[in-house]
Amino acid sequence: MGVSTDGQICCGVLLEEEIELPWDADQWDGDIDAWWRDINGFKHSREVFDADGHYLPGFSGQSDLDWYYGEERDWDELHGRVPVELVNACSAEYPIWIVALPGSCHVARRGDPEKFDPTELCVEATVTAVLTDFLDRFGIEYDGAAAWYLSSYWG
Fold it and tell me: pLDDT (tens digit, 9 = 90+) per residue, 44-62?
């Protein structure tokens, strides 16, 4: 029996292997959503966790977690989520990133074929400018314009 992977297709910009991305810094640990909220001024009204990720005194349980992550969801809804989607075009151990247009990604999980309309694969240049504007704004190096990529993910 062989190894199975997820099939995926998206419209985006392929980045160099082993590129350091702004959200890879220790304080965000690769979490693009946490990085995006932080650089755009989001702050929880009160902290639930200490620096090691343990509950602070007086906090515990699902209701505190619901409140904590609810603040993030509310902020996202009001201010907007990160304007790109990350697609790992390789594996968890050796990621090769595609910075993609949200909504352009289609994934077929192992053994679960997904049906989609190929006319969805048409994207206007003005829309792909969102990707290059994002990459330029944050100094992320890339080659070429956005394109459609068919890739697999083994993770």
Answer: 998 888 888 888 898 877 8
